[in-house]
Fold:
Amino acid sequence: MIYTYIQRIGLEVFTILGATLYSVWRTMSNGGMLVGDCIVVLSSISSISFALSNLIQNLAEFGEHALFLEDVRYFLDYTPKILDGEKELPAKPNALEIKNLSFKYEDAKTDTLKNINFTWNRGEKIALVGSNGSGKTTLVKLLLRLYDPTSGEICLGSDNIKEFKVDNYRGLYSTVFQDFKVFSLSIKENVLLRATKNGDDELVSSALKESGIYDKVSTIKGGLEAILTREFDDNGVNLSIGEQQKLSLARVFATDTPFVILDEPSSALDPIAEYEMFENMMRATKGRSVIFISHRLSSAVLADKVLLMENGEIVEDGTHAELLMKNGKYADMFHRQAENYLGREVCTNE
Ligand SMILES: Nc1ncnc2c1ncn2[C@@H]1O[C@H](COP(=O)(O)OP(=O)(O)O)[C@@H](O)[C@H]1O
Ligand SMILES: [Mg+2]
Structure:
């Protein structure tokens, strides 16, 4: 790309110099200018001004594109902070144990996670709840080894997860994050996130059914082959945010990884649609270990275990029923949310 710019800029400088030198030479050698020379000089002036404006535009573009090059250079020079281990994964991954884990972001003054302890048993469905900023997303990022703990450890079976090869370890997980992405690819490719092969249609259709968007997809011209977004295709399909979220969720159902993490996968859905989605999710992930994060506690009713976070700590844990009995912070939050929904229902009935 740099060479193209240099070539274009060089060509324009050459044109300008050539036109100027020719005019000077004609004037000097003839001791004056003929009508033909005037025409040549005028057309040279117009060429010069055109070439100059092109040159300025190219230099400006070059400056703009150099900023992207800087990003590419930064990316290529980046050395990962998460170091690879040597061990192969156990054939059948066991429980994940989180022991006295604390974590501080590099630029933060205080710990974002403080002394977290819990066990994520095989096949267990954990609801991770708590207000915004309490540390839920940070905690699951540590489980995925996107960051390493500042102190404490995360163990898979008897091994610290740092012992394993990072890519293999992360391959144990399917995730949907709040800031999910939909790509300018076919619906099928968006679900599989890999090259497609024969026999994929059935897998993708059943994943779309589980996430509750199959009916919508079957009304779209092209079905599973339809291209999403208009970024590269004028006939591309634009889905609503709720539909995109369901499509991202289908990615989880199209895999069979032992661990699943869903970080607010239903924030764009209404409470009833969210509850239905969680019921489907429970059925479709049978036997898999799932952590789901939601700020609506109705979904926590379905979980095997609820962890309530506040200011980077787990302040309550137990089943939904146990936490209601305890009548503590979780029970208080649950009742307040229920009242809110009942209140809304009264309003809509009026
Ligand atoms: N990359 C980061 N660098 C510094 N602080 C962060 C970063 N990401 C999140 N935080 C801070 O960590 C705290 C917990 O955030 P987060 O884990 O996203 O909470 P939650 O998911 O419960 O809303 C917040 O105070 C947030 O501002
Ligand atoms: Mg979050």
Residues 35-77 form the longest helix (43 residues).
